[in-house]
Amino acid sequence: MGLIILIVIWLITFASTYFFVAKTWWLPTGASAAAAGIDRYFDITYVLMGIVFVTAQVALGFFAWKYRERSAAAPARYFHGNNTLEIIWTVLTGVLFIGLNLMSSSIWASERFQPAQPGATQVEVTGMQFQWYFRYPGPDGKFGGTKPELIDPSAGGESALGLDTTDPASKDDVVTGTMYVPVNREVEVILRAQDVIHSFFVPAMRFKQDAVPGLAIHMHFTPITTGDYEIACAELCGLGHYKMHGILKVVSQEEFDKWLAAREAEKQ
Amino acid sequence: MATREFAAHESHAHAAPQGFIRKWVFSLDHKVIGLQYYFLALSAVFVGMLLSLLMRIHMIWPNATIPLLGDIKPETYVSLLTMHGTIMVFFVLTTAPQGGFGNYFLPIQIGAADMAFPVLNMLSFWVTFLGYIALLAAFFVPGGAPLHGWTGYPPLSAVPSAGPGEGLGADLWGISIALFCLGALMSALNFITTTLDMRAKGMKLMRMPLTCWAWFITAILGLLAFGVLLSAAILLLLDRNAGTSFYVPLITVNGQVLAHKGGSPLLWQHLFWFFGHPEVYIAIVPAMGLCSQLVSVFSRKPIFGYKAMVYAMLSIGLLGFMVWGHHMFMSGMSPYSAFAFSVMTMAIGVPSAIKTFNWLGTLWGGRIRFASPMLFAIGFVSLFVSGGISGPFLAQPTLDIPLHDTAFVVGHFHLIMGVASIFGIFAATYYWFPKMFGRMMNESLARWHFWFTFVGTYSIFMPMHYLGMAGQPRRYSQFTELHYLDRLIPLNTFITFAAFVTIAAQFIFVFNLFWSMKFGKKASDNPWEATTLEWTTATPPPHDNFGGHTPIVYNGPYEYSVPGAPRDYVMQTDTTAVPAH
Question: Closest residue of B to A44, CA-based?
Fold first, then answer.
C-alpha cells in the first residue's frame, strides 16, 4: 500500500508539474506595457512554489512508502518534535512568502497608485446587462452629462448611456460598442456600471477591474501591439454573464484619428 | 483548574430519554445531535454534487436535455452554481466537521457527559435545519433559485428586477443564510463553553487531542464571523424588502430607474468577506485537527510538535480575520490597502507550512498502518499542499490581475477548502464509524472509494488552474461567445468526464456507510488502538458517555511507541509512567 501511495502521489505531482513547465495552457500573449513585468513575477512565483510543491509531495509519497508497517521494521521512534527545526522552517517560509510579496509590489504600485499620464487616450467604459459601451469625449476633451431617466438600453448607443443631449459637452461625445485605442499610448479607462457589478477583463492586456454602480474608477494601461483583443466580463452579473463580451481594437495613431473623425462626422 | 470543572460537569448529566421523539428528533444528547448534523450534511452534499454535475454537463453540451429536468438555460446554470456553492459551504463544509463530528466527539474526548448547554445544542440543529429547508425551497418558488452566486454581491442580489430568481428565491436565500448564522452562533457558544468548562480531571488544555483544539478554535472563528454575516444578511433583506439602501446606489436596471440611492455595493463585500475568509478556516481547521490525530495514531508515533500545531492553528485563525481584502483586490477598494491585506495573507503561508512540516515529521520514523482513515489523512496532506500552493499566486495583487475571478481561483479553493475538507469528513467517518455504530466499515470498499476520489478530484481541479491561467472566467455557463476559450474546450470536457467518475465513486461510500451499519464486522471498543478518551468507553457510548463514572486523565493524547510501555500505545487514562518531554 505504501508503494501504491508513493506511485500515485508522484504521478499526480509530475503530471501536474509537466503541464506547467511545458506551458501547454498558459497566460495569453501579453500585449500591454505591464504584461512583461506581471508575467515575470508569475514565473518567479511559479518556480518557487513549484519547488515547494514537488518537494512536499515527493517527501509525502516517499515517507508513506519508507515508513510503512512491516513485520521486520523497527518500532516507531518516540519523540515529540524538534524546536530548532520548527524555528528554522518558520523563518525560512516567512522569508520566502513575505519576500515574494514585497518583490512583486512595485508592479502593483506602478499600475494602481499612479494616475494616468496627461495626454492619455480617455475612454469611459460602461457595463450593463449584458453589454459594454465605450465613450470618447471628442475634441473638447470633456464627457457630457448623463441622466438616469434618459437611459434606454433597447435604443443602444448614446441612449443606452442616457446621454444628456442638452449639455454642450455631450455634443461631440462618441459612443460605440467596440473599443478603439491607439497603440503605444496610455489609455485612461473610466469604469462605470449602470445596474450591477461587472468586471472589465482584457486578458491580453493583463487588465482587470470591477465596474461598480455608483463609482467612476480611473485606471490605465498601455497597449504595445496592434490587433484585436477580446474583452470579457469577469464578475457574475446575471443570466447573460457568459455572453457579455466585446472587442478591443488596438490600431495605429493615424488609424485611430481617422476612425474617431469618421464617428464624429456620423454624429453631425 | 481542572478539579473545579470536574464538579461542574456532574450537574450537566441528564437522564436518558425513552420516547422516539425525545430520543431521535428533539434530542438533547450531543451524540444524536451530532448524527443529525452529519446526516443533514450527507443529504446536502448529494444535492450539491448533483448540481455540480448538471453544471459540468451544461458547460460541455449546452443544448443537452436532461431526463426529468429538461433543458438547462443559462439562468438555470447560474442558479445551479449559486445553490451548489451555498449548500456546500454552509450545509456541508461548516455542518459536518463541526456540528457533526465536533458535537459527537468533543464532549467524549474531553471526558464530559454532554455539551454545556444541551437545549441550546438542540436549537442550533433545528435552526440550521430550517435554514436548509428555506434554501431548498428556493428551487420551487416562481422565478426559481437565485443567480447571484454564493457570494451574493449586491446590487445583483438586492434587486428583484436584476434577473430571474432574484425575487422570492433570493429572499429565501437571505433568510436561509440568516438562520444558518443564528444556528452557528449558538453552536459556537456551546463549543467554547464546553471546552473551557467541562474538561475531566487531568484534561489540561495542553493535553487535549488536536481535534478538540481544532473544534475550539473553529468555534471562536464562528462566533466572530457569523455575527457579521448575520448583520450583513439582515441589511440585505432590508434593502430587498424595506426600501433601505445599504448596498444599492442610484441604479438603472433594464432602463428602469430604481428607488434606491446612496448605498455602497462594496460595503457588502467587506462584511461578507470579513466572514468569508475565516469561513475557509471554519471548514478546514477541524480537518487539520483530525488529520493530525490520524497521522499520529496510524504512524504509531507522537505528533511532531504538538504545541507548534496548536499555535499554528491559533495563528491561522487570528490572521484569517485580517485578510478579507484579498478577495477584493479588483473591486475598486483602495489599492494601498491591498498591500496590507497581501502581506497578512502571505503570512498565513507560514503556519500552514509549519503544519505540513509537522505532518511529514510525524510520518518520519513511524510504522505506518494504511487503514482507510489514514489513506484519507495522507490524501488530505497532499491536497492541502496542492491547494495551498496556489494561494501565494492569488495573494499577490499583481498576479491577481490576470487570475482573479478565473477558473484558477475555482481550482484553488475547491482543492483546499472543498476537497481537502471533505477528505477530513471521509477520514472522520471511517475512523469514528466503529465508535458511533458499533461496527466496522468495509475496508476494501473504503480503499476503492479512496483511490477513485483521490485521483478523480485531482483530475477535476488541477486542470482548472491551467484554464484560469489561459483566462477562462469563472461562472460562465458556455464557452461559445469568447473565441479564446475555444482551445480550452477539450480540457473542460476532460474535467466533466472526471466529474462523472468521481461522483459515481461516491455511491461506493454511501453504500458502504449504510451496509456497514447493519452488516459490518462487529467493532471492539478500541479497534485502532488509539489513546484518546472515546476509545476508553463502550461502543456505541452510553447516554452519559462513560456509564456513570468520569475518566481521569494522566497523559497527553499522542503517547505511541513509548519505550518500556507494555503496549505500543498509552491511553490518556493509563497510569503507566510516560517519560517527561
Answer: B393
Q: Comparing B52 with A267, which gets the higher pLDDT?
A: B52
pTM of the entire predicted model: 0.95
Question: Edge-to-edge, what's the strand order for the sheet holding A179-182?
Answer: A179-182, A245-251, A227-233, A198-202, A207-211
Kindly report the CATH number assigned to the domain that includes residue B230: 1.20.210.10
Task: Give the pLDDT confidence score for residue B6 in this predicted structure.
Answer: 44
Determine the pLDDT at residue B468.
97
In chain A, what residues touch B358 (CB-CB under 8 Å)? 81, 86
Give the C-alpha separation, B252 to B299, whole Å.
62
Contact B96, A260 (CB under 8 A): no
Structural domain of residue B529, as residue ranges? 2-535
- Cβ <8 Å between A25 and B156: no
* Helices of type H across chain A: 2-21, 35-66, 83-112, 157-161, 253-267
B125 inside domain? yes
- Smallest CA–CA separation between A236 and chain B, in Å? 7
**In this predicted structure, what is the pLDDT of residue B573?**
95
Q: How far apart are the first and last CA of chain B?
A: 22
Evaluated on CA atoms B400, B404, B407, B409, the torsion sign reads positive
B576 belongs to a structural domain: no
Residue of A nearest to B567 (CA): A75
Dump pLDDT digits (tens) for A205-238: 999 999 999 999 999 999 999 999 999 999 999 9
The number of distinct structural domains making up chain B is 1
Tell me the three state secondary structure of residue A236. coil
Judge: A197–B398 Cβ closer than 8 Å, yes or no. no
Architecture of domain A121-267: Sandwich (2.60)
> Which candidate from B356, B365, B402 shows the least CB-CB separation from A76?
B365
Hey, of A195, A219, A228, which one would you mutate to test binding to chain B, going by the most B CBs within 10 A of its CB? Answer: A195
pLDDT at B16: 79
The nearest alpha carbon in chain B to A73 belongs to B367
- pLDDT at residue B14, rounded to an integer: 66
Sign of CA dihedral B365, B368, B373, B376: positive
Mean pLDDT of the region A15-35: 93
In a domain, B159, yes or no: yes
Q: Are A45 and B162 an interchain contact pair (Cβ–Cβ within 8 Å)?
A: no
What's the sign of the alpha-carbon dihedral A43, A46, A51, A54? negative
Residue B50 lies in a domain: yes
Q: What is the model's pLDDT at position A75? A: 84
The pLDDT averaged over each successive group of 10 residues in chain B (581 residues) is 43 70 91 98 97 95 86 91 98 97 98 96 98 97 96 97 95 98 98 97 96 98 97 98 96 94 96 97 97 97 96 96 96 93 94 96 96 98 96 94 97 96 98 97 98 98 97 94 94 97 97 98 96 96 92 95 91 83 65
Chain A partners of B154 at a C-beta cutoff of 8 Å? 196
User: B222 and B188 in contact (C-beta within 8 Å)?
Assistant: yes
Residues in chain B within 8 Å Cβ distance of A64 = 363, 368, 370, 378
Query: What are the residue boundaries of the structural domains of chain A, listed by start?
Result: 2-69+81-112, 121-267
| ipTM of the complex in this document | 0.96
- For residue A27, give the nearest of B255, B367, B469 by CB distance: B469
Distance CA B296, CA B107 (A): 21
Q: Which of residues 58-87 of A touch B (CB under 8 A)?
A: 59-60, 63-64, 67-69, 73-82, 85-86
Q: Which of residues 111-150 of A touch B (CB under 8 A)?
A: 111-113, 129, 148-149
pLDDT at B7: 42
Q: Nearest CB to B305: which of A16, A57, A86? A: A86
Q: Which of A196, A213, A242 sits opposite B476 (nearest CB)?
A: A242
